User: Which sequence fits this backbone?
């Protein structure tokens, strides 16, 4: 099947109980498109954290996969060498859901961009697998990734699936840890760029033949775009972005 799979942007909550139903729906989408019951988890964004934290994410992901009745494939892609190692990447093509979890979006983008791993991830999604990014994982799907704490620094090049959309995860907590001066720079986009904020434990998903749909306890905030405003679970919205 050559239809693109579902694409999800998540504000926070990967592998947690409050997001289990949502993750399960993405797996079902992938299975319906001929993929295998594999929940593939990519922790690259957390690569610079401690071994203890990496083990924590692996265990949390294992519990999520077990609760959903599928097989976990946790890929330790921590360097560009890892991302170009075909032996490490064998399970990518068949996975019903590929999940880019949180951490440092700049490290994630610089590690996976223009690698065999990203090529395989893209081909999986283009052939029906679901692709989800949480927090840092959502940010990298844009063309550009802003520096939240170094707002005047040049943005990092993202993966470009969302041509003109910029994503702010953890949006309901965003202004508590970003200085006002930095927030003003980040919120001042030019041209036709779309800026969205996604609250914690909240997601927005694009399924084949549908507009984007909001899921979760919080809201999707379209700060700049075709229909600015706040949108709650169940609502369909247009983000005005041509997906790769």
Assistant:
């Amino acid at each position: 099947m050559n239809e693109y799979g579902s694409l999800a942007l998540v504000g926070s909550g990967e592998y947690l109980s409050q997001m289990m139903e949502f993750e399960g729906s993405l797996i079902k989408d992938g299975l319906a498109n001929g993929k295998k019951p594999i929940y593939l988890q990519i922790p690259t964004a957390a690569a610079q954290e401690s071994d203890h934290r990496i083990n924590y994410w692996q265990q949390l992901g294992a519990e999520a996969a077990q609760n959903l009745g599928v097989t976990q494939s946790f890929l330790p892609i921590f360097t560009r060498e890892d991302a170009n190692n075909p032996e490490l990447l064998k399970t990518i093509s068949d996975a019903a859901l590929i999940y880019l979890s949180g951490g440092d979006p700049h490290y994630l983008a610089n590690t996976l961009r223009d690698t065999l791993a990203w090529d395989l991830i893209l081909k999986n999604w283009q052939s029906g697998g679901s692709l989800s990014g949480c927090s840092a994982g959502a940010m990298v799907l844009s063309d550009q990734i802003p520096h939240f704490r170094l707002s005047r620094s040049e943005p990092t090049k993202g993966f470009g699936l969302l041509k003109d959309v910029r994503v702010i995860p953890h949006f309901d907590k965003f202004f508590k840890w970003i200085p006002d001066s930095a927030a003003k720079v980040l919120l001042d986009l030019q041209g036709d760029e779309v800026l969205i904020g996604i609250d914690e434990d909240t997601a927005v998903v694009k399924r084949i033949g549908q507009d984007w749909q909001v899921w979760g306890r919080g809201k999707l905030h379209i700060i700049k775009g075709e229909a600015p405003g706040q949108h709650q679970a169940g609502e369909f919205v247009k983000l005005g972005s041509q997906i790769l």
About this structure: DSSP finds eight helices and 14 strands in the chain. The helical segments are 20-32, 51-68, 80-83, 105-112, 116-126, 136-139, 171-177, 180-187.
